[in-house]
Amino acid sequence: HAKDKGKGRYEVFDASMHNKVQNALRLETDIREGIIQEEFVPHFQPIVRLRDKKIVGFEALARWQSDQRGFVYPSEFIPLAEETNLIMAIDLQILEKSCRQLKLWQDQLQRFDLYVSCNLFSNHFFSHTLPDDIENILTKVGLSPQNLRLELTERALLENTEVVLENMTRLKALGIRILLDDFGTGYSSLSYLHRFPIDVLKIDRSFINNVHEHGNHQAIIKTIVDLATNLQMSTVGEGIENLADAQLLEKMDCVYGQGFYFYKPMPASDLVKFLQA
Ligand code: C2E
Ligand code: MG
Ligand code: MG
Ligand code: MG
């Protein structure tokens, strides 16, 4: 009996493994098709100056309008896209569409002060072609590098230091600013920070969420803001969901903020009315 049971378990295990592999393969095929059909589109979440709540720019966040699957959020396709490196094509598709949209708003609204901030997978920074790829997109779209920011995570700072530094230096020389995303969640050593030409630390939302109720989170945020100030960097607090958190962050000298309390990510067609106001 025990033997039978064991065998049964193996069959169940095999079947569920088989399903997982099948699902991943199907997802990969659909992502490939989605890239070709240009189904990846940016939604935009405004970033505000906390002092006066004025919109200073927005983050581009990938959404997948899939023919097969409908509207898909990043958590459902980014992990596999990273594993398969298909994220490289998605990132550039989002970046180009975002730059094109901002250029359109510049022409329509005469707002040249706004920037768009695009997320890049760390592997981009390990590639010698990154600065040229970005510059070519900007030239094609006709957007000034001053209006583009790039977000990367700490992972990009831990390997291939030489090429990452060279890429950052070249991007900075064009006038592009560089943001370190999800700061505080990554790797404990802060010693690497000053070696890279980073302009902004984005304080991870896990520290911000209900910070007014968590004394230890307040201490961490204050430490990050002071660190940034000492390194001549600026800070953006992510994931601000209520007024109390917004006020506390401002009190701790965090200059910029982003979160559902101010604006949710939205399609370009919805954002335009906030830019006109
Ligand atoms: P992220 O870059 O840290 O982006 C911020 C995430 O926090 C977004 O989730 C945003 O919708 C969410 N968020 C903003 N404000 C709030 C808030 O007040 N409360 C809560 N609970 N969440 C808030 P989203 O759009 O689902 O994106 C998730 C992650 O997927 C991003 O985190 C980023 O790591 C990745 N991602 C999104 N678009 C791209 C892309 O084009 N390329 C790459 N490589 N990664 C992307
Ligand atoms: Mg980001
Ligand atoms: Mg983030
Ligand atoms: Mg994140």
TrEMBL record:
Gene source species: Thalassotalea profundi
Domain EAL: 24-277
Chain ranges passing through the membrane: none
The protein, known as: Bifunctional diguanylate cyclase/phosphodiesterase
Domain of life: Bacteria
